Amino acid sequence: MKIKTLLLAGAATLFGVASARAAVLYGPSNYLSEADSPFVGQTGWTVENFEDGVLMTGITASAGDPYGPAGNADSVDGDDGVIDGHGSAGHSFFFAGGSTGITFTFNASVLGFVPKSVGIVWTDGVGTITFEAFDTNGVSLGIVTGNHADGSFYGETGEDRFYGASNWDGIGSLHISNSGGGIEVDHVQFSGSVPAPSAAALLGLGAMFAGRRRR
Ligand SMILES: [Ca+2]
Ligand SMILES: [Ca+2]
Ligand SMILES: [Ca+2]
């Protein structure tokens, strides 16, 4: 009975959030393969893993190039066929200006639809990682930061984290940077839909709602 009430409250709150069309931010979350993406199964979900050494048409980068395989390359772990703590046998995307960072822009007319969810996996660099997404008018949808760099540069994957955003009105670009040195990323991805919140998130919203009501 109590759970049912919470779920109903959660659904009511969710409806409020959905009708307000608020953006959702993701991460930093552990990511060793595509299975760790919050966008698995979403409409038009596409992942650029750089394993062909080329950035796909429809996405442009402000700076940097595909990189690897190399001893200091840092692909998402699973791209070399085995999740084993190492990504140097795969391909990533590298830019020497980590503090400037990289903007990936999504071209809706080339992709065939306006992305409503976008994401990226930070795989190597130093300092604080900063992720920001922008709507199709270039207005910021919010910033997520993380501190999970392990200080080594030889393809270790335990530090790798996903960052992303969803927006009902669409997303035009994302930017990612880290405090210094270079920056390496992988699995630039997008989809044409917004994932439904998990049951746990619904219960959390329900609890928040119930808390507010009690005051
Ligand atoms: Ca691996
Ligand atoms: Ca890769
Ligand atoms: Ca790494």
Helix/strand layout:
Blueprint: H1 2-20, E1 24-30, E2 46-48, E3 59-61, E4 65-67, E5 92-95, E6 102-106, H2 108-111, E7 117-134, E8 140-146, E9 161-166, E10 173-191, H3 199-214
Antiparallel strand pairs: 1-9, 2-10, 3-6, 4-5, 5-10, 6-10, 7-8, 7-9, 7-10
Helix pairs in contact: 1-3
This protein binds calcium ion (CA) (3 copies).
One calcium ion binds at residues 74, 123-124, 156-157, 159-160.
Describe this structure in words.
The chain is an alpha+beta fold and 215 residues long. It has one domain: Galactose-binding domain-like (Jelly Rolls), CATH 2.60.120. Helices cover 18% and strands 35% of the residues. The chain has three helices and ten strands, in the order αββββββαββββα. Strands 1, 2, 3, 4, 5, 6, 7, 8, 9 and 10 form a ten-stranded antiparallel sheet that branches. Helix 1 crosses helix 3. The longest helix has 19 residues. The chain is globular and about 45 Å long. The N terminus is likely disordered. The site of one calcium ion has 10 residues, from loops.
